[in-house]
């Protein structure tokens, strides 16, 4: 599998996304959202108030992020920030990943404790409805991390980093989550971080300690692996091209963040 570094010199690179054929990512150290255009030039789209910086788009194209403190925040084309919903009533811990379904339900997750130094506690998934309502919809997740909604909008898949698995939920029209099930057990020692749903319906996951991305089918069969030379924090698939957000986890992380493009055809 041919690999090419397409962005480098960043800090903790996360929140890999594809939008209109372009790759977007977040540099958590810089607290910025970055768009990588077709010529490889980087454009800072927004600068946020806090980490983590994860983002997605509403059905109308509005960019929203969890990087505005304990709130869901929109980012205008000019970079202006507007609070969409207050999330402080659900938790006083920082929010992590975000995923939006076709109905406009915005799912946000929270690890439930002060990582990395705090004592472990189970995390949860919350939802912000199109009407602005906010509530918890899934509990007792072992460090909920990357999330993705299936193409038909019926299922939310959540990576549980401390349980070495991908869990799935059926999404109701109002954003409620039911029918929790194990989508794939990934094996001892695996810590899935960001995820991306392949056109085949299988799921790519990034793993920091394993320094790889892997494609797994429902049930856990490994279909492909992409090894890299540093921790893999997130990934995004665009047809047969996989973009991987990587950085050193042990040692000096500043300046080690890269985006690697991989041909996985």
Structural features, described:
By secondary structure, the chain is mostly beta strands. It has one domain (3-263): Neuraminidase, CATH 2.120.10. The chain is 0% helix and 55% strand. It has no helices and 24 strands. It has strands spanning 3-10, 13-19, 22-27, 32-36, 42-47, 55-57, 63-65, 71-75, 81-86, 95-100, 106-110, 123-128, 134-141, 144-149, 155-160, 165-171, 177-185, 192-197, 203-207, 212-216, 222-227, 231-238, 241-247, 257-263. Strands 1-24-23-22 form a four-stranded antiparallel sheet, with no helix packed on it. Strands 2-3-4-5 form a four-stranded antiparallel sheet, with no helix packed on it. The termini are close together.
Defining traits:
single chain, mainly beta, Neuraminidase, four-stranded antiparallel beta sheet, 24 strands
Query: How many individual helices?
Result: 0
CATH class: Mainly Beta
How much helix, percentage-wise, in residues? under 10%
Task: Note the beta-strand portion.
Answer: over 45%
Low-confidence blocks of residues: none
Q: What is the string of SSEs from the N terminus onward? A: EEEEEEEEEEEEEEEEEEEEEEEE
| Rg, Å, rounded | 17 Å
Total number of beta strands: 24
Largest sheet: 4 strands, antiparallel
Distance between the termini: 8 Å
Shape call: globular
**CATH fold call:** Neuraminidase
CATH architecture label: 6 Propeller
Q: How many domains, as an integer?
A: 1
Q: What's the average pLDDT?
A: 95
Structural class: mainly beta
- As laid out across the biggest beta sheet, the strand order is 1-24-23-22
